[in-house]
Amino acid sequence: MTQKSVKQLSPRSLVAVLAFAALLAAGVGVALASRTPTAVAHDNDETAVRAALMQSATGFERGDLAMLNRVYANDESVTIFESGHANYGWADYRDHHLVPEMKEFKNTKYALSDIKVKISGKTAWATYKYALAGDIKERHIDVKGLGTAVLEERGGNWLIVHSHTSAPRRAPAAAPSPAKK
Q: Which of 2, 54, 73, 80 fits as disulfide partner to 159, beta carbons 3.0 to 4.6 Å?
């Protein structure tokens, strides 16, 4: 509006224009202010996803099934792929893989590193490196590998619904050298 057209407005119209401008300015301010909580919420979600993954490692290391129950979705949506084997559903993984494995391990150390998290809505995925060491019967294992996890936000908690880990293949045993004649 030009200066002349503003002067031609009735006092009532001028109040309406100014009120609209004030609302517009307030709306822009709210929109800009709302960007910060979104970033904070995202940072909080990323922290929560990392915490769930770290709790899964700590739970395994301690043999703490209660802790693991809190970070895995306790339903049939869980899929676990590990070293060429698959478990479908939390009960299958827990009862036929996790619990027997935790009972078998002694002096367990399990650590995650280089965790990279991506989040879209109520779904998060993460890649990571892992190091697992422990004693099984008479032998000591020390394995390093890579993992991917998918988590869903349910009821305010990030829960693991999928995990896939793999480790490099061990070098084959050296072939015996041919006997000399």
A: 73
How many whole angstroms from its chain centre is CA 31? Answer: 29
Q: In what order do the strands lie in the sheet with 85-88?
A: 85-88, 79-82, 157-166, 139-154, 123-136, 105-120
pTM of this structure: 0.72
Q: Check if the beta carbon of residue 17 is closer than 8 Å to that of residue 25.
A: no
Task: Name the token pair of 77.
Answer: 């949506």
Gap between the Cα atoms of 181 and 172, Å rounded: 27
Q: How far is 179 from 181, CA to CA, in rounded Å?
A: 6
Within a 10 A sphere around the Cβ of 172, how many other Cβ atoms?
Answer: 6
Tens digit of pLDDT for each residue in 3-17? Answer: 555 455 555 554 444
Contact in structure between 180 and 151 (CB atoms under 8 Å): no
Residue 125: beta bridge partners? 118, 150
